[in-house]
Protein 1
Amino acid sequence: MRFKNIIFDFGNVLSVFNADRLLELCTPAYHEAMKKAIFHDWDALDDGTITYEDYIGQTLCMSDRKDWEAIRMFFDRWYLALEDIEEVQAWVHELKREGYHLYILSNAPVIFEENVHVYPIVKEFDGAVYSGSIQLSKPDKAIYHYLLDKYQLKAEECFFIDDKPRNVEAARQCGIEAMVYHQNLKKNKKAILV
């Protein structure tokens, strides 16, 4: 077994992170201006450089008062509403049974990390690193080294799966074999068995 550790991104690998779908699930009605305000600087949330409350405040300041209730509803719910990518989650269970060590490496706000236990799949993982709480995010190579150091992993024994090519490339630059997941699970499975 060449790889001992399989590392997964969360959004759009384990579960769907789609702005329109989350708005649909979490607010009674939304429109493009509301969407633009809500996601005006989401990277800052992922990076942990702004508090959740301050980000919500910024969003409200950018929005029409009549939308405030719907916006607050979104911020109260989105992190509980990601839908499973069932084929990948089924594979996670298989990998666990086969003896692989499993980790999550995700760009995600602190509020998501604090509530991630609502997703049953996380029980299968041996460890996780989320960007917001450590103020490091992909594709910064420092976050990959942080994961390796935290769990005492050897880069050459790890395989990383992410939906963004730039994050996959950064992992490779750290000596971690990696592949983009884009509804191509058969290719991902085959790559791990090489």
Note: The first strand starts at residue 5 and ends at 8.
Protein 2
Amino acid sequence: MYNNRREQIRSMLQTKAYVTFKELSELFPDVSEMTIRRDIEHLEREHVAIRVRGGARSMRFITNQVDDSITSRQQKNVESKEAIVEKAAKYLEPGRSIFLDSGSTLQKIVKYIPNERFSFTTTDPSLALGLCKIGLPMVNLVGGRLDGNNQTVTGIHAMRFLGDINIDIAFLSPSGFSARSGFTVGNYSEGEIKRIVVSKARLVVMLMDESKFDKSLPYTFADAADADIIITNRPLPADMNGIIEKNNITVTIVDDTI
């Protein structure tokens, strides 16, 4: 019976971070791979798994958090974040499709956005509410599973939504940045969302303070070369100079000492 089979797959996903379709086909030789895919789709709707190429990842392991909570991050490097988003707001263009990342940095950008006809998409419910209060901007809030620890929306429905829209300018805030690992985050689902955004955007603007330098978290969502503009508060580490020059990345250093 399919109920018993799905329960066996569910049990596997409680102890394994990833299972392949090949592995499941060998475990259940009497059913087709299409049937197994439907089982995974069922478990995905129950937020047990998320489909990836070649198999499924366990949501139990995906939701493990390495980053600090959003509440903790909101209290850190406040002056630097204010200076960074004030500079970032100058890259906003009315009439463009603009993605604003979730997180403590971009939550501060609202006060610097003029009341004009911008078109924003975000995965951050708190940021979306702030944008709506401005007046004229149109705001799309991505739907999906709400991660309360990060105040961000993730999951397969969020990925599908972003896959269906066009993004002209993307403002992203990584949790770590290094020459070896690129731009990284501590949560797999959040990383997959950012990866989609980077792949679709014409212009990628990375916002980060010096605390992110030479820091590598588990999941890389973009290489250093994927950035078009980096806005930060201190010069980047010396080992980044070659990458920056080779890829013509614009680096803007803001003054956060006021």
Note: The mean pLDDT is 88.
Protein 3
Amino acid sequence: MLPNDLLLSVSQLNVCVGDRPLLTDVSFDLRKGQMLCIIGESGAGKSTLIKALQGMMPATCARFVYSPARIDIGGPMPAQLGLPQARWVMQDPLAALNPRQTLGRSIAESLYQERLSKADLRRRVLHALTDVELPETFYDRKPAQVSLGQAQRACLARALIAQPQLIFFDEPLSALDALVQKKIALRMDLLRRASDTTFIAVTHDLGFAAAYADQILVLKDGSVSAYQSRKAFFDAPESGYAQELVRAAQSLGVLAEVAA
């Protein structure tokens, strides 16, 4: 029997392109309000995994459970599954935003199905801008008129405004400088806790994972190399590859003290 607070359960997920396996027997469980960080070198299968979870790549799974939509399936994943009540924040915010639209209009797109009045729509968008610490004047700005970090905040606002159950992040901080990374990472965590939204974040940054993850999933050549709680992972990584990652992060001084 599955726990009442389980949001997503994945058992033995496999992805193949032709005869080439990209992911092999990937399994994890994620409870509501948690953050899962997916870590691994380039080509390990991180982005492939989040695409497969949304039906954007052909995949099979022994069991796939997504509680907000009461999805409980096994075998081939339906093409274009499209998880309801889920959003995606991409690595490059300028590629994710329409250059011809204002930030306000881009953020409002997530609410069009609600058929709100123009006044209510604007009020919701302005509130979303405030949530990500952007001034109301940004409502009328276009992507070319803001910094990369401000554009990424707008993408976060667009994801959160629809009040999703789950948000996927694909390297959301990698294009930003260190100070902006820190500010946006902290804001992401505060908003997650305030809204009880579940996050799945692909990242190379073990410092980010050490600060904010509840669980860590390490991929190596398309297979799970480690799957542990944050504290367990940094205290006693369960594979040689995971140990190498932690030692490298420690030598670079990117790990703060890991809380229980």
Note: The two ends are 27 Å apart (CA to CA).
Protein 4
Amino acid sequence: MPTFTQTQLEAIAGALGDTPGGLTEGEISVLFEMASIPDPDAGLETRQRLFNAFADVQTTRNDRTHILAFICTAMRPERFAKEPERFEAMRDNVNRALALAGLVVSVDGKLEAVREASKLSEATRRARELRADLTYRDAHPEVMRFCQQELLADSYFPAVQEAVRGLADKVRRRTGLDGDGPDLVDRAFSGDPPLLAINTLASEGQAGEQMGFAELLKGLFAMFHDPAETEPRPHWHMSREDAEDLLGLISLIHRRIDAANMPRVM
């Protein structure tokens, strides 16, 4: 079994220790014990504590078995029974870090092998080029943050998918609603008046624009939804040009939501 590189260990430790929502100091202590990993640096900042412990046990044993055991134990879905949204957020972070090592945490919390990115430099190049093109297009800041090499290690699809999830998060933050997908869109943009309105709704044409905007959002969510456990995960061999066009559209939607008014609270 190959060992993790220093870069991979740093990314994994950063993902698991990411705050808010990452592992707490108490959780880390318990998980170290369960994975038989010594914890010589309990007083350190969370990410550095995880990295030091992972690096030490891998060097000592010359394998990554105990680190994999730690990840599997940390990502057991039953640990998140009372806060499932935390599990999905952590799984997304960890999977970005694991992408360059050819691993992924599945929806049931198991580690699975995937095609490893051929070179870190390839993912870095993709991130740099995409970031440059989106900067030229004056993309929304909440879209720019998805130009990460971890997301672009395999293709452009994960970056676009994460950006679409960011739209749902934006709607939830502005409205206080929960949920996802078409149901979230209907509750936010329908009603008389809706929770969010992209115009004054003063005419039939403006009402149509509101409806069309909602349908556009629904279409994006349908294209990039998370599949049911019984369905295969989507894998779109997306070109950079396709990604730029889609991220440009997502930027436009972000700006319209930013500028939207809330008629029910006015």
Note: The longest helix spans residues 204-223.
